[in-house]
Amino acid sequence: MSATATGKTRDHLGRPVVAVTGMGVVTSLGQGVQDNWSALTSGRSGIHRITRFPTDHLRTTIAGTVDFLFDEPVRSPVLTERLAHLAAEEAIAQSKLGTPGDFPGMLFMAVPPVELEWPAKRALYAGTNPDSGDAYDRMIDGAWALNDTDTYEFALYGCVAERTADQFGTRGAPISLSTACASGASAIQLGVEAIRRGDTDAALCIGTDGSVQVEAVVRFSLLSALSTSNEDPTAASRPFSKSRDGFVIAEGAGALVLEDYDAAKARGAEILAVIRGVAEQADDFHRTRSKPDGSPVIGAIRQALADGGVAIEEVDHINAHGTGTPENDKMEAMSLEAVFGEHIRNIPISSNKSMIGHTLTAAGAVEAVISIKTIRDGVIPPTINYENPDPSFPLDIVGNVARRAPVSMVLSNSFGFGGQNACLLIAAEPG
């Protein structure tokens, strides 16, 4: 960072510096940053058996569901919204920006491809006139015929962000986005870019996902993406281990309040971190698999370093995407070695998904919060279940036990189905 002749703080490309002044999180480990951080640094898993729907005949019967906050099961879009609001409330309260219901900035929100689950679809279809047209029209008409406008509203993709904008009083049109497992990081990237352009002085960036329902589990099972290690749920997620057999689907939400650094300083806000670099790069090779040479992932990492003006030696820690699938972990390890060379052996790497599972649309935002806590506390959460390392990976995996280490710069990776790759460089505020 440097100060211009006008006294404004700018990065190496002359852009406004983007500060983080608030953060919030909800996962299967608990509600709130502190509860999650305590669990993560102690190596505790939030993965457990699924109880919200029958799992008979399913190959996977475990998940990182958030079951402890609400008395009754709710539809996925409703849970997605509730998780987002809890994370946002915590982040805004910490930032002390605006007043309740009047957030003076834009909303960028990563949400899953919202849709009704099978039971709701069947109920709507059964309650309509069979002569009213095709199945889709009948379900739309059925929402009104059953006087269930909430069901219809929650079937609309932008609904969760619009309701969140109403709840928190954000400025302008809310932005909904879905870039698969990179979505949470993409929401933060859009907020950073808006502040850099001068479109806004502040942004509320949220990644949220409450979509663990039978339909989602069946779909990912058909892709052979989920772990089937059901015997011991807490040991099922095994990133970078030789015995890894898939990811564990999970739920959660992460939220950051971003601000123009100078504006935040002027109002006396505490600067938690700065977003030093952002990047994204698409991979058109396959709907689920990565390009064999890893070039889009390699490109995204290099782009983030260039965007932040950061040398490889400045990265103190990598918060890996680390899903625990055979191919994804291999691709990430290969790409990191290509970018960092021999130096990769000197950078501690961890995957939070070993404890919270893969929160899909929320993952990038949840892991950004964890990265900031790593910087502020000087503790790197472990990758648990790391008893059988994959010998082909030349990586310094922080295995099983948290590691104390000074951390000033974190690279947080998010790579998603459909070729969506996003990387964030998160740094401590310079002294």
From TrEMBL:
Kind of enzyme, top EC level? Answer: transferase
The record's keywords, sorted A to Z, are: Acyltransferase, Transferase
- Its pathway? Lipid metabolism; fatty acid biosynthesis
* Keyword check for Acyltransferase: yes
EC number, as in UniProt: 2.3.1.179
Q: Give the GO molecular function terms.
A: 3-oxoacyl-[acyl-carrier-protein] synthase activity
Key word tRNA-binding present: no
The stretch of residues making up the signal peptide is none
Q: Which family does it belong to?
A: Belongs to the thiolase-like superfamily. Beta-ketoacyl-ACP synthases family.
NCBIfam families per UniProt? PRK06501.1 (NF005076)
Q: What is this protein called?
A: 3-oxoacyl-[acyl-carrier-protein] synthase II
Query: What is the source species?
Result: Kaistia dalseonensis
